[in-house]
Amino acid sequence: MSLFWVMIPQLAEIQEQMASSKKVIMREEWEKRLNHIRIRKEDMNKLVMNFLVTEGYAEAVAKFRMETGTEPDMDVAMIMDRMAVKEAVQCGNVEDAIEKVNDLNPEILDTNPELFFHLQQQRLIELIRNEKIEEALEFAQEELAPRGEENQSFLEELERTVSLLVFKDVSNCPVRELLDISQRLKTANEVNAAILTSQSHEKDPKLHSLLKMLIWAQNQLDEKATYPRIKDFLKATLENPAV
């Protein structure tokens, strides 16, 4: 049983106890309630392993497996192959990334036209970044324009990307964020998710779902009680309730 499912009945019990009116629960009482929740170490280890596998930390997966005996639900070699694709995109080697994806499973790009377009869009961005203007224009016309004619959203994204060529000083371009490293990361994460899906694996770590559930639970409890809630999720510290 995962930590996610362990917490649900505890939260439901707390909500039922507060159903009549909004109450104030002080820190001491709240921590006492939390201390009654028992979470198995094995469940925590599985949660950590799931995160490492999904995010692609192959070396960490191998070390964590040795230290805890927790088995990953994916072969380490498969993780490394996926990370090779992701790293190629992050480095701007999009052609290499496309080849690696096709080596893993050619159906990934064949059945996902949006992903393929975004990879081709990233290729165009890299040509513009490297000031290969003529090559960029030719690539946009031959590879991306036909796809834009079939899909209006593709066409809009193509027009935004090509507008980078209009500005000599890219810092004044309204779409200059396309040249940021964050754009590479966005495309790399999209490829990572597609590969995971093709391997029948969740594209997001369970930890993300658990965090969303925690935020949802706090929002629900806010309507019925004042209590020591978590605002800074990085530190996960409880704040004293405002009385």
UniProtKB/TrEMBL annotation:
One of its GO terms (cellular component) is cytoplasm. Residues 78-135 form the CTLH domain. PROSITE patterns: CTLH, LISH. One of its GO terms (biological process) is proteasome-mediated ubiquitin-dependent protein catabolic process. It comes from the Eukaryota. This is Glucose-induced degradation protein 8 homolog. It comes from Gossypium hirsutum.
